[in-house]
């Protein structure tokens, strides 16, 4: 038996019996520097797992200087695809003296047949590989991770539907008999909802008789979900919209209801504890206490294998609620109704995990009057700083009068930015495209966004200038397609995240897509036919990978374990072989995306 590391994917998909078969069945082979280990067109007879040394993957059909497309080091494996396909497409050549474990073809095929998950590993694309890692984490006994993969259908109740002409007394009887807290109301061709609280208020506060019809007191603006949505998204919706239930729809038909109590019965999380702290806060001090718990919440979520996109959505909802309440505490109701507070940048896209700098603005309704607005905005900036959101180094904040303006003034700013097309103007357009309303009158932002789309979506010259930002930073790959490995690490934000975020943002402007999240924009671009599904999935998973690697470094800095390392830099040498493989594939996806954008918007000119 040999001493071989089988703790890394894909061998961790096997049980101990299968791993023992691998140990008993492998041989150890030595290869000289420059020796061809597996040649293009050669029948695959072994899977190679590197013990020591380095191996290059070469495409012999590529032009000279571009043949080297892969690089493998200790614990990396290669040769499996040549067995599955019959022959090898590429040449694998030792770049230095190397020792490799050789897993025979027959044993590899036998294990693939007995263990479908192991077999699937070698047939998956980037997006599927990343999802598989998450699912494996969830199977490790982590209740939070299992919750993140649960669907709404697993937790929804059968809907109880009554007609709008049903009386309040009859509705109360229905609630009692069904042991429910709410009823769906079918009235005048619409679907609404009435709750126990609504019925009580109607009788006590409004003084309505028991014979009054529920159609007159039901709410017809519903927060909805779908049966195949993740259950966690329902929790995010409840947090964001301050409701205790969502209606599950199938087309125009209501097929179920998910109550907050149902979600908590399925899983009780610290996320809800923080959410309750925020909702119960009666002043800024209360908000500050809730806000202080957010970093610990993120650490707990990530430690338990939560999918990064879910964590982003939850944090965006919680941060939004904190800022919303701060705005409500500080600003008079009249002014709140005639203004809209925006968050922008990563916060606007809902893609920030740890607290970021303040990046906000205010829209005022035309004709509104707000005496002392500069002092009020200064107070808001100071308060947000107290809540853990530091000032923006670029001064893009409501305390800066340049970022507080009326609807008409904002339309004028957008027109000037679009016409000038200088770097600062293009940055401001990007910031405004990502804006998300968190307090006040959200319709003010909707009107402004439509104006931005009308001005920019068909302006090919503006789109070309705008898209050129994706080429601002180089992709951290060598000329041979391998990962760059500087000692100080690669900047994952500039080299990986930014090209995806800005490229998708450009396409969203072109196609007039109102969503601000990069993930939601990708979905909309697929629905629009602008991106094919497999490539959009790979872009989304690449972005999630970059974000997770970046977050891992940020959390280490937060814990004081690695304060010397910049939060956006990832040291490739510290990654496992599997992580390096995923990172290399993800960066190649970024490179392809840049090429597609260059062709579409003629960036080469």
From TrEMBL:
Q: Which InterPro entries match?
A: CBS_dom (IPR000644), CBS_dom_sf (IPR046342), cNMP-bd_dom (IPR000595), cNMP-bd_dom_sf (IPR018490), DUF294_put_nucleoTrafse_sb-bd (IPR018821), GlnD_Uridyltrans_N (IPR005105), MgtE_transporter (IPR006669), RmlC-like_jellyroll (IPR014710)
Pfam families named among the record's database cross-references: CBS, cNMP_binding, DUF294, DUF294_C
Domain Cyclic nucleotide-binding, chain residue ranges per copy: 10-89
- State what protein this is by name: DUF294 nucleotidyltransferase-like domain-containing protein
Annotated organism of origin: Chromohalobacter sarecensis
């Amino acid at each position: 038996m040999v001493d071989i590391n089988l703790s890394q994917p894909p061998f961790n998909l096997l049980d101990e019996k299968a791993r023992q078969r691998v140990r008993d069945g492998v041989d150890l082979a030595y290869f000289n520097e420059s020796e061809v280990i597996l040649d293009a067109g050669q029948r695959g007879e072994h899977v190679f797992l590197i013990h020591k040394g380095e191996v290059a993957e070469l495409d012999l059909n590529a032009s000279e200087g571009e043949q080297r497309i892969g690089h493998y080091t200790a614990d990396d494996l290669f040769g499996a695809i040549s067995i599955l396909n019959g022959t090898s497409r590429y040449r694998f050549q030792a770049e230095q003296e190397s020792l490799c474990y050789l897993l025979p073809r027959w044993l590899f095929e036998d294990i693939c047949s007995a263990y479908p998950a192991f077999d699937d590993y070698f047939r998956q694309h980037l997006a599927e590989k990343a999802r598989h890692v998450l699912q494996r984490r969830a199977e490790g006994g982590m209740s939070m991770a299992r919750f993140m993969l649960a669907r709404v259908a697993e937790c929804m109740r059968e809907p109880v539907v009554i007609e709008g002409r049903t009386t309040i007394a009859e509705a109360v009887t229905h609630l009692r008999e069904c042991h429910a807290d709410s009823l769906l109301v079918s009235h005048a061709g619409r679907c609404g909802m009435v709750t126990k609280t609504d019925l009580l208020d109607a009788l006590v506060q409004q003084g309505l008789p028991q014979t009054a019809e529920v159609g007159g007191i039901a709410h017809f603006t519903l927060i909805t979900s779908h049966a195949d949505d993740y259950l966690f998204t329902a929790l995010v919706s409840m947090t964001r919209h301050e409701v205790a239930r969502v209606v599950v729809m199938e087309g125009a038909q209501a097929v179920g209801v998910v109550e907050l109590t149902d979600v908590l019965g399925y899983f009780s999380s610290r996320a809800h504890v923080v959410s309750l702290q925020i909702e119960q806060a009666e002043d800024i001090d209360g908000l500050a206490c809730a806000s202080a718990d957010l970093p610990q919440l993120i650490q707990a979520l990530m430690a338990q294998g939560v999918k990064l996109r879910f964590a982003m959505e939850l944090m965006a909802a919680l941060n939004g609620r904190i800022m919303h309440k701060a705005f409500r505490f500080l600003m008079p109701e009249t002014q709140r109704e005639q203004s809209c507070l925006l968050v922008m940048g990563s916060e606007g896209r809902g893609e920030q995990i740890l607290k970021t700098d303040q990046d906000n603005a205010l829209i005022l309704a035309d004709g509104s009057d707000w005496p002392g607005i500069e002092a009020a905005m200064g107070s808001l900036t100071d308060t947000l700083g107290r809540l853990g959101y530091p000032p923006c180094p670029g001064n893009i904040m409501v305390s800066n009068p340049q970022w507080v303006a009326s609807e008409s003034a904002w339309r004028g700013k957008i027109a000037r930015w679009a016409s000038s097309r200088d770097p600062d103007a293009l940055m401001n357009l990007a910031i405004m495209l990502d804006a998300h309303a968190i307090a006040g009158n959200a319709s003010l932002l909707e009107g402004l966004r439509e104006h931005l789309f009308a001005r920019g979506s068909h302006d090919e010259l503006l789109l070309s200038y705008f898209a050129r930002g994706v080429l601002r930073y180089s992709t951290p790959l060598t000329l041979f397609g391998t990962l760059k490995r500087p000692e100080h690490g690669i900047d994952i934000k500039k080299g990986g995240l930014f090209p995806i975020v800005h490229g998708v943002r450009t396409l969203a402007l072109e196609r007039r897509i109102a969503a601000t999240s990069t993930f939601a924009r990708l979905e909309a671009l697929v629905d629009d036919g602008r991106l094919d599904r497999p490539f959009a999935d790979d872009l989304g998973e690449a972005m999630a990978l970059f974000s997770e690697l970046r977050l891992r470094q940020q959390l280490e800095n937060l814990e004081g374990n690695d304060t010397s390392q910049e939060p956006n830099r990832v040291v490739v040498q510290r990654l496992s072989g599997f992580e390096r493989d995923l990172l290399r594939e993800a960066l190649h996806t970024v490179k392809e995306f840049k090429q597609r954008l260059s062709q579409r918007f003629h960036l080469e000119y």
